[in-house]
Write a structure and sequence with these properties.
By secondary structure, this protein is α+β, with helices and mostly antiparallel strands. Helix content is about 25%, strand content about 20%. It contains five helices and six strands. The chain has a six-stranded antiparallel beta sheet with strand order 1-6-2-3-4-5. Helix 2 packs across helix 4 and helix 3 packs across helix 4.
Length: about 180
């Protein structure tokens, strides 16, 4: 989905409010977690996405791995070997109890995520004064989607993105990079 030399992955430490004990309650890829009833939807999406940091394509550039195969399971019509940023976002949202799509079927295409967001009143076009919340989806044109981890004191957006440089990566983005956000809470 996305490769960039601009904002490379960064060691962000733990964002405020997401301690190890909170993150330890996620059980990874087995489809079960104890987060479905704790905290806000946004916080649950972030914690679930954080539990996947470092998952990589095997081999690199293949859009495949056991983890990516699991991400596809929450998106109807998902295609093995296809770009997987939207599959990852759909999986994290589904695991948190807030699946994407009109029937919760997941959405595997970035433009379709934005269309769904517009039709459900969740679309927030980027502009002056727009500040996303943790767990919101961050959309980059029709090409890439990630999950907002938080807004840093300098205004930069901390993200977790599937299929960023062939892995699930923590990233820091300029607020001007996003075309919009999808409110998930």
């Amino acid at each position: 989905d996305y490769q960039s030399s601009a904002s490379s992955t960064a060691a962000l430490g733990e964002p405020q409010g997401y301690g190890a004990s909170f993150l330890a309650r996620t059980n990874g890829l087995n489809g079960t977690n104890s987060l479905s009833g704790s905290g806000s939807i946004g916080n649950r999406i972030v914690a679930i996405a954080e539990s996947q940091l470092g998952q990589t394509e095997q081999p690199p550039g293949s859009n495949e791995s056991p983890a990516i195969a699991q991400y596809r399971t929450t998106t109807e019509g998902a295609i093995p070997g296809a770009p997987w940023c939207a599959y990852f976002a759909s999986w994290a949202a589904s695991q948190a109890g807030e699946p994407l799509g009109a029937q919760g079927q997941g959405i595997g295409d970035v433009p379709d995520i934005w269309s769904w967001a517009q039709s459900t009143g969740r679309a927030i076009p980027n502009g002056p004064g727009v500040q996303p919340k943790p767990g919101d989806l961050i959309v980059f044109g029709g090409e890439h989607v990630g999950i907002v981890r938080g807004v840093l004191p300098n205004g930069q957006i901390s993200t977790i993105e599937g299929n960023y440089e062939n892995k699930v990566a923590a990233n820091v983005r300029s607020p001007t990079e996003a075309t919009g956000y999808v409110s998930m809470s």
